[in-house]
Structure formats: C-alpha cells, structure tokens
Amino acid sequence: MNQKITSQPFVDAYLIHQKPYLEKKLIIYLFTKEHGLVPAVTHHSKEKRNNLTEFSKLSCQLLIKPSLSQLKKIEIKQFHPPLRGSYLFAGLYINELIYRLCQANQANEELYHLYMQSIQNLSQQKPLSKEVRMFEYQIQHLLGYGLNFECLDQTHDNWFYFTPDTGLKPSISKQTQLYQRKDLENLEAGQLSDPETQQCSKKIFSQLITHLLGKNNIFIKNIMPKKDN
Questions:
Q1: Domain containing 57: what range?
Q2: Quick one: 89 and 68 in the same domain?
Q3: pLDDT at 229 over 70
C-alpha cells in the first residue's frame, strides 16, 4: 500500500451530506475541525456504508486534495442515538446549512464546535426553537454575515427594517418587515430565550438565506412540518 496513504492521520468528522458517484462510489461531505467542509470520494463498501452515520462523531482517514479528497477508512468514534421527529428535521436542516453555506476546505474551528454542541443539544432534546435559532444566528456571524447593530446606538427609534444589501436601518416608512428595538438588543446580546426575539432572528436569517441562495434553496425546509419550519 502507498506509504503516503497509510501515514495519513485520522481526523474527527461529522457526515453532512452524501450522494452517488459513478457506479460503486460515493461523494461525501465531512465537517472537520482541521479542514472545514471536506468533499471526498470513497468506494461504496458495506463496512463504510455501516459507519457513515449522520450526527455521530466519526474518525476518518482522509487523503486531502484541493478539489476532491479521498476517504480511505472510517470508524464511529462516538455514537449518538438517532434523532427523531422534529429533532431529526432540525438536525437535517443544520446539516444543510453547513453544506450550502460553507466553502470547501476552509477550516472554521468555532463553527465546528458550534455544530458539535448543537447536535449534542438536539440529542438531549433541549428546547428546539431556541437551538435552531441560535445555530442560525451564530453561523451567520461566524461566516461573516453578522448583523451590524451600530444603528441602535445612533438613534432612539423603536422600529427598524433589514435588507441584506444595506443591513439594519431605522424605519422611516411602513416596511414589509419591521423589527422592534428590544428584539434587536436581545440579538446583539446573544439572548434568544424570548419567543418574539426568536421570530425576529428567524425572519432576518430567512431574508439573508434568500439573498445568498435564492428562494426555496434549502430543500429540507420544503418537507419540514410547518410547526418546525
């Protein structure tokens, strides 16, 4: 066996997405601390198929390449019980955000730890809406799309509007989406316990995603039950 391959270290990873490739291969997307989101090709063997488990921490031997890496070996390092019901949809939604928003092979250690903590919280069935909104809010910040709250200090207005191009602005006329100062102040402080603040954060993130990816570009949201969406 090639010495270069056998000497590759194992790295911790989470399975984010997979799809068929050629006749007996898969392209998988692994989220790692060291390399970020890694697209990799692998043979579709029974052993690998059994270990390609979503939401469990995996140990993977990867041959990293600029475009498409190679997955050589994979083991389950820390098994998480399967997510069920609304928590499963939330986990799949979080995976799709990672898949759609992250650039390949760009490490983001903070985002990796956020993902790991979010999956653990979903496994423990912590309050669902708060967990999803917090992940949305923090991935927005960590990928460079965070809100600029300076306008809150520059005016005493109580209502604001948001567009992805201009950010937050005081409301000077009747806008289709209005956000209250108290909710924006909660967001600035990272406090998302209030249901009204959660709705504010959800609407702003939805505007941002539509701007970045187009309408209906998050597939899982099209099949999620309405109460979880």
A1: 7-78
A2: no
A3: no
